[in-house]
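Homework help board

Subject: predicted structure for assignment chain

Our instructor gave us this sequence and asked us to write out the predicted structure in token form, then describe one feature. I got the tokens but I'm not sure how to describe them. Can anyone check?
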Amino acid sequence: MRDPHVPGSYAVCPLKALTGLSCPACGCLRATHDLAHGDLAGAWGMNPLWVLAVPLVAALWLRWFTAAATGRPSRAIPVRAGWVGLAVVLVFGVLRNVPALAPWLAP
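My token output:
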């Protein structure tokens, strides 16, 4: 099994390689690996936004799966929720590259 914490075990983020900036998804693979191994603190250190998003994504998937399994149509997610989600991701992407916040938000 590969450990994403080992340099060279997986590809490098193209944005990070080209600009040196961390994208909002940088660290998600390592955070997922840490969550799967029960290391919440390690996951939080890699990508706090992903750690907060995983329960939401799981709940939405469970809602969809339950509706599909029972044959009931699932309600659509409001468009406003998509715009709010996009804004959160963009703000997180900017804030994690602010040098003063890097110790808490950078992977």
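Reply (TA_rk): Your tokens look well-formed. For the description, you could write something like this. The first helix runs from residue 14 to 19. That's the kind of observation they're looking for.
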